[in-house]
């Protein structure tokens, strides 16, 4: 078979083909190990490089799983993207229940960002500094513990702390990303994201935007995606399709993976890869798929989505067999 990264590396303007991984998948000789080495040129941690698994208490860290993932990438010439320094869903209990002042809370966030960026300096090529800061309904800043305790400037503070830590560690090439979802279909959210991005860019604190792209076989449309992404291209930002998966059962109207949805999914992967491949070289970074095989995707088990366990969103099936989606990805690289 043709391998994804082999074809991507032959492009006039190559980009990383990424996969979200778990540390326990990376043992030498595992099925994941073989596929990752053949097909992927970048990895993100699906969970283990977030704040809650790493941060035990103030200044106390559990690096084990994250170190394993980073070491695997570094040992195998695979790019490592850091996901994510600050995210309201990944706040450890000790920080959620922090009884100190707001200034002391901010100092804890600064210490965390500084320590993590320093720990992985030169080993992790990019970080999602802040993830999902924009509220879906209002298009304003999401009312998270960070906004409540640090105020609306918290995003800029976090990017500055990350930039300062990287520069202090000599990692002047570290790429800092803002990461979010559904900006192509939610224009208020898209506009708010770009106002945040413009403010960061004015202070040279941001290098790229992560478009999660938890899409469906129907949405967003090609035009919606291109309109959104072209705004980032125009600002000279790197673009990371950071968490791509394609639901085929968003309305929970099928109980098995029908051929009609299989082919629709193939076409949607092809469409998204083609859109990404068409952006200018200067804006390319990585296109990352959020997991390897269908039965390990977050989607069927998500309480936010009404899938009742039925969806097949990724490139490999539960037996690691290639799906038509994988063929669609390859065709998108033509
Ligand atoms: O492994 C631990 C286990 O040791 C512990 O006992 C158990 C009890 O909480 O948790 C286990 O961790 C789970 C982890 O996935 C394992 O991979 C967490 O509960 C569970 O919350 C976590 O879910 C992840 C979720 O983010 C929250 O961090 C999903 O795998 C992951 O796909 C999902 O990814 C997010 C992106 O980071 C941001 N964009 C949306 C995307 C989907 O929600």
From TrEMBL:
It catalyses: Endohydrolysis of (1->4)-beta-D-xylosidic linkages in xylans. Residues 1-332 form the GH10 domain. Keywords: Carbohydrate metabolism, Glycosidase, Hydrolase, Polysaccharide degradation, Signal, Xylan degradation. Its EC number is 3.2.1.8. It comes from the Bacteria. The active site is at residue 243. Belongs to the glycosyl hydrolase 10 (cellulase F) family. This is endo-1,4-beta-xylanase. It comes from Flavobacterium taihuense. The lineage of its organism: Bacteria, Pseudomonadati, Bacteroidota, Flavobacteriia, Flavobacteriales. The chain holds residues 130 to 463 of 463 of the full protein.
């Amino acid at each position: 078979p043709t391998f994804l990264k082999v074809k991507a590396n032959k492009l006039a303007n190559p980009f990383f083909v990424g996969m979200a991984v778990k540390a326990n998948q990376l043992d030498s000789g595992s099925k994941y190990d073989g596929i990752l080495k053949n097909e992927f040129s970048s990895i993100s941690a699906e969970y283990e490089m977030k704040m809650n698994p790493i941060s035990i208490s103030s200044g106390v860290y559990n690096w084990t799983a994250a170190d394993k993932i980073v070491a695997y990438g570094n040992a195998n010439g695979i790019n490592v993207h850091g996901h994510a320094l600050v995210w309201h869903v990944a706040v450890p209990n000790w920080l959620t229940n922090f009884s100190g002042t707001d200034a002391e809370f901010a100092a804890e966030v600064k210490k965390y960002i500084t320590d993590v960026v320093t720990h992985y300096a030169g080993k992790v090529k990019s970080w999602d500094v802040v993830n999902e800061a924009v509220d879906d309904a209002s298009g304003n800043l999401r009312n998270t513990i960070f906004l409540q305790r640090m105020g609306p400037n918290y995003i800029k503070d976090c990017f500055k702390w990350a930039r300062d830590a990287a520069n202090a560690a000599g990692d002047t090439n570290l790429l800092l990303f803002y990461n979010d979802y559904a900006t192509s279909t939610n224009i208020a959210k898209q506009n708010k994201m770009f106002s945040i991005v413009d403010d960061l860019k004015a202070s040279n604190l941001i290098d790229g935007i992560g478009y999660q792209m938890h899409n469906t076989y129907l949405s967003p449309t090609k035009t919606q995606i291109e309109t959104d992404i072209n705004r980032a291209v125009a600002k000279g930002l790197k673009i990371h399709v950071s968490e791509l998966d394609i639901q085929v059962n968003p309305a929970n109207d099928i109980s098995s993976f029908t051929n009609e949805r299989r082919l629709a999914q193939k076409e949607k992967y092809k469409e998204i890869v083609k859109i990404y491949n068409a952006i200018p070289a200067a804006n390319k970074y990585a296109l990352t798929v959020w997991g390897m095989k269908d039965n390990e995707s977050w989607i069927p088990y998500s309480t936010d989505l009404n899938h009742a366990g039925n969806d097949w969103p990724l490139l490999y099936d539960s037996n690691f067999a290639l799906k038509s989606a994988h063929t669609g990805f390859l065709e998108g690289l033509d």
